[in-house]
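Everyone, carefully examine this protein record:
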Amino acid sequence: MDRQQEFVLRTIEERDIRFVRLWFTDVIGTLKSVAIAPAELEGAFGEGIGFDGSAIEGLSRVSESDMLLRPDPSTFQVLPWRTDAEHPGTARIFCDIHTPDGDPARSDPRNVLKRALDRAAAQGYTFYTHPEIEFYLFKGPLVRGAVPEPVDYVGYFDNFPGGTTHDFRRTAITVLESMGISVEFSHHEGGPGQNEIDLRYADALTTADNVMTFRTVLKEVAGEMGLYASFMPKPLEGQPGSGMHTHLSLFEGDSNAFYEAGAEFQLSRTARQFIAGILRHAAEITAVTNQFVNSYKRLWSGGEAPSYVSWGHNNRSALVRVPMYKPSKGQSVRVEYRALDVAANPYLAFAVLLAAGLKGVEEGYELPAGAEDDIWSLTDAERRAMGIRPLPSNLDHAIAIMEDSELVAETLGEGVFDYFLRNKRQEWSDYRSQVTPFELHRFLPML
C-alpha cells in the first residue's frame, strides 16, 4: 500500500466517514456511482470492485461484462453536503476501470484521456486546461414539456442586489473550494438566469475530474435551494447557449511551450502548429466536443458561438482565440477553444483536442492567416475567400465526418469510437422522427 492510500484510509477513520462513493463515467459523460463501506476500500485499492460493465453505456459487450473499479487515491475528497448528525459522512474517489486481467479498459473515458496524455508526455509535454463553464439556473421543480423559468432576467456582468444567483454562486464556490477545486472567476452571463464559473487551470486529467465534480456540486446546491442547474447547450430559444470555452497550453517541464518572446502574440512555433492541428481536424472532432442534437442549435444560433473554422487574436467569433497576452507573463500564453459544449464528456473532449493539436506539432502544420473581423458578419463569399469553412451543421453531418477520421478512431479506441457512431446515429434518427414542423422549419440549416 502506498502513502496516498494510507492517507485516505487514515482520513476516513479520523473523520468518521461511513460511505465511500466510487465515481466514474460512461461514454456519454454521465456520472456513475457505487457506495461501499470504508472497510471495503483497502481491498478495492488492491483488487478492485467488480461490476457489470455491459450495463454501462459504451463500456463493454455482454460477453465481456466483468469489469473492475480501481479507486485513484489522489482524487479522494469528503463530500461537504448533508454531513450533519442525521447524515453520516460521505467521501468520493474517482476510479479507473480495468479488465479482470488487470489491464486498463480501453473504453473507459478516463483511460482514453490518459492514453492521449501519455502520448504527449512521450514528446516531453504536459497538457493543461482551464474551462469557463456556463450554465442556466431555473426555478424548480421543472415541469415536463413546459418552458423552464429563469431565476432572473438580468444580463452580462450585471450586479443585481439581493439576486438569487449571487447566493447560489457564493454557496457553490464555497463547496467547490472545500473539495480542493480552485475557482478563478464567477459572474452573471448574458442570458436570463445564465451564469459562468471559471475553474483555475490544471493538468487535463485533474480538470476533467473537476468538471464532473462541478456538475454534481452545482446540481446538489441548486436542489437544496429549490432551483435547477441546467448544462444543456441551448435550453432557451432566442437566448445565448451555454458553452465551456477551454484554454489550452502545453508545458515542457516548468516552461510554457506556447511562449516565444518577441513573436507575434508571443506564440511559439509549437503553439502555431498546435492551433493549426485543431483547425485542420476541427470538423472531425466536433461530434465529440458537441455530441448532442441540441449542441448545434447553440453553434448555429449566432451570438458568440463559433460556427466557422478560424482563429484570431482576441476575436470571440473565432473557433480558436488567442487571448490578450501580458508581456511580463509568458507562462500565461495559451489558446482558447470556443466550440466545446458544457455537456460534453470532458475526458473524451480533452483527448481529441490534444490529439488534434499534437498532430499539428508532429506534422509541422502551417497556421493559416488569422481572422480579426466578426466572422458572423462576413458574407459566404468573403469567408470562402479567406479560406474559412463552416463547422458541421448538425449532429448527423458531424458523425459522417468523424466516421472517416483516423485521428478520432485512434484517440478514442475502437470500442468508444464504434459506440459513439451507433449511439449518435440513433439519437439523430429519434430526433428526426419526433421534431415538430415549426422546429424543422426554424432550424432547417441545422437539421
